Amino acid sequence: MTASSRPSRFLLPALALLAVMLCVASPAPAQTDPDCPERRPLPNMRYDEDWRFLAAERCRTEPWDRLKYVPLAQDRYVSFGGEARIRYERFENPGFGRDPEDRGGYLLQRYLVHGDVHVTPRLRFFGQVESSWVHGRVGGPRANDANRIDLNQGFVEWTPHQRDDDVVTLRAGRQEVELGSAQFTSARNGLNDRLSFDGVRAFGEIRSWRFHAMATRVVPTVRGSFDDRSTPDETLSGFFIARRHDWLPDGNAVLYVSRRTDPQTRYQEGRDREERTTIGTRWWGRGTQWDFNYEVGMQTGSFGDSRIRAWYVSTDTGYSFAEHPSRPRAGLRFNIGSGDGHPGDGRLGTFSPLFAATAYSGLAGLIGPSNSVAIAPSVAWEVDERKTLIVGVIGFWRQSLEDGIYNVATEVQRNSSGSRERHVGTQPTLQWIWQVTPRLTWLTVLSYFRAGAFLHDARPGEDVTYLTSWWAYRF
Questions:
Q1: For the segment 322-362, what is each residue's pLDDT rounded down to a tens digit?
Q2: pTM for the full model?
Q3: N or C terminus: which one in the chain shows less Cβ crowding within 10 Å?
Q4: Region of residue 22 (phi > 0: left; psi between -120 and 50: alpha; otherwise: beta)
Q5: What is the dihedral of CA 365, 366, 370, 375, to 10 degrees?
Q6: End-to-end Cα distance, the chain
Q7: CATH number of 8-474
Q8: Cβ atoms within 10 Å of 63's Cβ, excluding its own
Q9: Is 191:356 a contact under the CB 8 Å cutoff?
């Protein structure tokens, strides 16, 4: 699709698809049978679904249930599912005024179809195909905008040990990976093309200790048909162990180590091969009113001939007014990712968020955790049981005055340019989420990034307005 294409060419078929989504998205009837669980929104990781309860025909109350559970034999079944997402996106002054202006915005579409074959209670095969498109974007598709059609997931899973609360599972093949809070390893649902890995994973729980180990290759996005290939040069491996604790309300703790290799990574210091090891710990929990998510760690390794010495701190604390009808949650997030303090000294201090989600600076993804300090207060209201309104603001500063700023994909947005200014900008954001039915979601985000003193020095430093709205239907 050429950059000159206009979204209007695709507006009619997109609206037609939306009409179909609305027609089949009638609310599920209330479940009264205790053996038929309440229908909830489908998980982000589709392989986590469990449809065994549909073995009882009285529980099959929705139009898609005959596809969600297709019996084969005793304890054997197949489950099918999919997703259609139609999204509008528009930036005013993209790249803080550096990138081509796109006044009409553009249309993004993503389609996913999967099949889950349960051969036995301990053996299954999972496959998922993805197709993603962008129409009408000036400058053409970005790196994760377009993939005509490809295998997003295809793995075999075996559970050799399962007794009482202990379970060990092995998974091999192409798969999405989302760990912990998804801060550093995410399927990147906010992007148009989701991220997957080729490799093996082992995970489970033994004597109340949860564990996960993986050795994988990154699968880069290629825009053709069934041409996404991983290589041994770009990898992600690691492990974690986690357990609940009683020191904080409903608390959990995890210790993790990961290793990332990339043949060509670019920082302000230059472009070279990178081997980066991350060692960190995360503490999180949720009580009746308070919730918390604290993470800290360090990174070592090599970048060409230079050593890597980086670090990060991340905190997210919230208080929910449980007695109020709208259950508002007041939250405060605080993040620091180190920057390079002395360019050219043989030591790279820029923190890398690896495969971060876009949550750091909202779906706009203008600023990432590298060389960044962020303070983000927010308030979320449950308008009713299906609608949520979130209002927040994020202030961004450079951690090191000798390093530039990066987006969520760790791409350099501005070099330091000799500026002694620390403030990058302030971004108020309004987010509306409507879970129309357990299958249909409508999300809208509006944000305004007001450029700070650093961007005024490292010109162009224009303010950025961002709008996105999508309908996503899953079955």
A1: 888 888 999 999 999 999 999 989 999 999 999 887 778 88
A2: 0.90
A3: N
A4: alpha
A5: -90
A6: 29
A7: 2.40.160.100
A8: 13
A9: no
